[in-house]
Design a protein that fits this description.
Layout lengths: L1 H14 L6 H7 L7 H16 L3 H17 L4 H15 L4 H21 L4 H13 L5 H14 L4 H13 L3 H14 L4 H13 L3 H14 L7 H10 L3 H8 L6 H13 L3 H15 L4 H11 L2 H14 L20 H4 L1
Helix pairs in contact: 3-4, 4-5, 5-6, 5-7, 6-7, 7-8, 7-9, 8-9, 9-10, 9-11, 10-11, 11-12, 12-13, 13-14, 13-15, 14-15, 15-16, 15-17, 17-18
């Protein structure tokens, strides 16, 4: 099968009279495998990764990538993909389990780059760890994102997270441009549209974000993954009731619970808002500190918001990557303590 793939690709290129630069041609097989069973497991992992919604789904994704690595220990792409899955899983957990998965993500990213130093997905995996796992090393993360993009400028798997990180760092125009390019390159992928929605949300283009989220929902109407972000766009436009309706679809998710805590408060349901916050705290403890800061900021309780941001820094909350541009924290931004 792999031999046939290569023959077809070569024949197509020849038929189209496409002259690939040697460097580009070499990149096409970088980090891959010659083991059909390993490739099969990797592709199953990728399919499951695309459809994953929760920790249980991600466990199946990791199992498939682990099978691929077991069959070919030099399969750098599988290490990079498993690193990303560990990062995502870590962000759904709290306590020691969260940190354990982040440590595994770092180990896999390093292994991918040791096997294939010029593998864009390897640099992306390391960048994700540095930016979104609580490492909070944004300078090095930026270097890795830039390296990944330089190696694979047409790869939407690289473009989407690069776009989000760029806007988080305040490079709004670059982030939006990259997110829009990902949509052009992969228009039938819900992730392209939902990523554009996130980038536009942090870029404070809320109506445009709603349109992007709607496109994602149209492509996968059963997907509730972006409920909280979609609802936040409605919330920031002042449509608190629409925000509530969206987030009540998946009340067991902590992002949706945060959304409900602020929407209920704006709708005058203060007791329900307090109950929702208590529920999140019972589940996440101090690991939810950044989210509590956002809730208190939106409730107008500035001292509590700042207090929880201090805790977020102490526990190295992964969500701090959003701190520079998160609109939910706007009530705190003029405070000298926040600026420090």
């Amino acid at each position: 099968m792999l031999k046939l793939q290569a023959e077809i690709a070569t024949a197509v290129a020849a038929a189209l009279k496409v002259n690939l630069l040697g460097e580009v041609a070499a990149q096409m097989g970088l980090g891959g495998t010659h083991d059909p069973a390993a490739l099969d497991a990797f592709l199953r992992g990728g399919k499951a990764h695309y459809a994953a919604h929760d920790a249980k789904d991600l466990a199946a994704v990791i199992a498939a990538y682990t099978e691929a690595i077991g069959r070919d220990p030099n399969f750098a792409l599988a290490f990079a993909a498993r690193s990303q899955a560990f990062d995502w899983l870590g962000n759904t957990l709290s306590g020691p389990a969260m940190r354990e998965n982040f440590d595994k993500a770092l180990s896999d990213a390093r292994k991918a780059l040791a096997l294939a130093p010029d593998l864009a997905q390897g640099h992306l995996a390391l960048a994700t760890y540095l930016a979104e796992s609580g490492a909070l090393d944004f300078s090095r993360a930026n270097e890795e994102y830039e390296r990944a993009l330089a190696l694979a400028p047409g790869n939407t798997i690289v473009l989407r997270p690069f776009a989000l990180f760029a806007v988080w760092m305040g490079r709004t125009e670059a982030g939006i441009a990259a997110a829009r390019r990902a949509v052009v390159l992969d228009p039938l992928n819900r992730f392209s549209h939902s990523n554009l929605g996130q980038v536009l949300l942090y870029g404070r283009q809320y109506k445009e974000a709603l349109a992007a989220y709607q496109n994602a929902s149209d492509l996968d109407h059963l997907d509730n993954f972006n409920n909280a972000a979609h609802a936040t766009a409605y919330y920031l436009l002042g449509d608190f009731e629409r925000a509530r309706v969206l987030c009540e679809r998946k009340r067991d998710d902590s992002d949706n619970q945060l959304c409900l805590a602020i929407a209920y408060d704006k709708l005058g349901r203060h007791a329900d808002a307090e109950k929702m916050l208590a529920k999140i705290k019972a589940s996440l403890g101090d690991d939810g500190a950044y989210g509590y800061a956002a809730i208190y900021a939106q409730w107008g309780n500035i001292p509590k918001g700042l207090e929880w941001l201090d805790t977020a820094i102490r526990v190295r909350d992964p969500s701090l990557v959003q701190l520079k541009v998160d609109p939910l924290l706007d009530p705190l931004r003029n405070e000298p303590r926040f600026r420090r």
